[in-house]
Amino acid sequence: MIGNTSRRVSVLVATLCFSRYGFEFSLSQKKADFYRALVHALDFFGGSPRKIIFDNLKAAVLNGSGRHACFHPEFLALCGHFCMEPIACARRDPESTNPNLSEPLSAIEVIRSRVDLSLLTKGTVVIIGLGGIGSILAHYLLLFLASLKDEFHVLLCDGDSYEPSNQYRIVVPDFANKAIAQASWLNENLGRPGLYIRPYPQYLNDKNRREVIQERSLVCLAVDNHATRLLASRTVAELCNGVLISGGNDGVGPGETGSYGNIQIYGRIDNCDAFGAPLQRFHPEIANPADRNPDELGCIELAASGAIPQVLFMNLAVASAMCNAVWRLLMPPADERMYDEVCFDILDAESRPRWLTGPRMPS
Predict the structure, then answer these.
(1) What pTM, to 2 d.p., does this model score?
(2) Are the C-beta atoms of 236 and 213 separated by less than 8 Å?
(3) CATH number at residue 209
(4) Per the structure, how many domains does the chain have?
(5) Cβ-contact 60, 79 below 8 angstroms
(6) Using an 8 Å Cβ cutoff, are 227 and 289 in contact?
(7) Domain span at residue 331?
(8) Please, which of 25, 243, 319, 339 could form a disulfide with 353 given CB 3.0 to 4.6 Å?
(9) Do 34 and 175 sit in the same domain of this protein?
């Protein structure tokens, strides 16, 4: 009803296939009105899809249907302007306008529809340290990224090389620089168009830190060196936007079982600390490191610094906890702050999140 007058109207229904986000616009079926409504729909969605699937209306299809459709040249021009590939549905098969109705979503498509991947897509995923923890983390985090259709940029950073003595806790792809060896293996086994994996065969140091850690980076730090942890933390603290997830564990030393580990999370949003804190705030051993950056060590010192044995299963637990932190950032609980740390011991089967910068529940 328009006033006291009854009038027949038509409705354009534009729906995003996977999220089911919909837009409706009432208008006539004239060509100009259809084109105008479609532009309004794209403006409402905030962008254009790569493909647009539609019924065989005359404003879009001159003749034929499905694969044999002959598109209206003005409609093709409109699609070209918005970089969309037009796809006409088959005749008398309205469900083909929505691939989800005729074919169920795959498992990874269901998962993808429920998370916000902007943390991973807006910047570079940087993995620093490709030893016992970092190599496991790289394999499983990149397996997840490879299964998606989004574009990701990954930087693997390590100045060390694999040796035969590493094989008791690391699947060594090649006895070469760790970053180069892992990048080669990951590209060969998990590579796909849109997943860009690049090695950076250097230790993180004061000269290259801003090249390695840039705006909107997600930094996964898997090193056993406090000086490097402090350097990475200070670098992330200088960013407007960025996230640091650092993980480590005890080795099997005098009086130590090698079963304890922890991770720390620190995030910056719009030039402010959004969650967590710089690693050195609650850890004096990081604030005042007794060790030095590997770049500053000689060959003998460097060999001695990595002599403490580490338990494979502890490395696995730390890498898993770091992946869990990434997942929580992609799917954050609605009424709970991000934890600052997680401490765990595999002998006692304990894993405890800790909120150090504020209460667990926001006020």
Answers:
(1) 0.73
(2) yes
(3) 3.40.50.720
(4) 2
(5) no
(6) yes
(7) 112-354
(8) 339
(9) no
